[in-house]
Amino acid sequence: MDTSNMTQIFSEFLGTMILILLGDGVCAAVNLKKSKAEASGWIVIAFGWAMAVTIAVYVAGYMGPAHLNPAVTVAMAMTGSFDWSLVVPFIIAQVLGALLGAVLVWLAYLPHWQVTKDQGAILGTFATGPAIRNYPANMITEVIGTFVLVLGLLSFSQHSFTDGLNPLVVGALILSIGLSLGGPTGYAINPARDFGPRLAHQLLPISTKGDSDWGYSWVPIVGPVVGAVVASGVYMMMV
Asked: Which ranges does the record mark as transmembrane (predicted)?
């Protein structure tokens, strides 16, 4: 594998780490006891994640395509704008970056885990979960959210933006999805975003954490991939 590919793979690792550090970081700020931002609400989380994506794309974007999401990587390969041989290395890098990002959130909020007794709040800091557990409905929500994400990203490629503006536009897309479609499932729309931090939740020594809810974990993996595939098909039919 040449140096250029290794740089791109590293950029996915680094960018996804920043994405989760800042994204799960805002969840920790809102969810954990005695945080100065405790209970500040969904609007803060939605804006926090939008800015997390923006900053992560800026960090990773000068070294690679800044997918930061296995569903996006698959979609770009399907549309012919990304090499299939790099799909698996990108996904591995994204998951490992997400895992490390979640560990850094744990370290950043180290005293707060012990005083937080709500197991749902702790798990919600790391991974997504449904407001109403209904797997078919939860799956549909993730498919729709990721469809909008991927179709938006692919459509952006048909426009010219001022240099440096593209990550802000992507952040606006994430904000819109979070505010409009995030309520039912917490809008994973990214398998690495959920799986890596959920694995961190499983492994980290948090005495009050409870179960990692692996029974739900397939929804934020399968749903985003299906949504990405459908969006890619629609985009290719249009373009």
From this structure: 39-63, 84-109, 135-156, 168-189, 218-238
Q: Does the reported pTM lie above 0.90?
A: yes
For residue 200, what are its two tokens? Answer: 């961190």
First to last CA, the chain: 32
How far apart, in whole angstroms, are the C-alpha atoms of residue 209 and residue 27?
Answer: 15
The answer to whether residues 8 and 61 touch, using CB atoms and an 8 Å cutoff, is: no
Residue 239: per-residue pLDDT: 84
Both structure tokens of 225: 């991939």
Q: How far apart are CA 54 and CA 52, in angstroms?
A: 5
Q: State the Cα–Cα distance between residues 155 and 239, nearest whole angstrom.
A: 9
Tokens of 39: 């209970």
Domain ranges of the chain: 5-238
DSSP the chain: --HHHHHHHHHHHHHHHHHHHHHHHHHHHHHSTT-TTTT--HHHHHHHHHHHHHHHHHHHHTTS----SHHHHHHHHHTTSS-GGGHHHHHHHHHHHHHHHHHHHHHHTTTHHHH---HHHHHHHHS---SS--HHHHHHHHHHHHHHHHHHHHHHTTS---TT-HHHHHHHHHHHHHHHH-TTT-----HHHHHHHHHHHHHS--TT-----TTTTTHHHHHHHHHHHHHHHHHHHH-
Tokens of 48: 């926090």
Q: Distance (Å, rounded) from C-alpha 239 to C-alpha 227?
A: 18
- Per cent of the chain over pLDDT 70 is 99
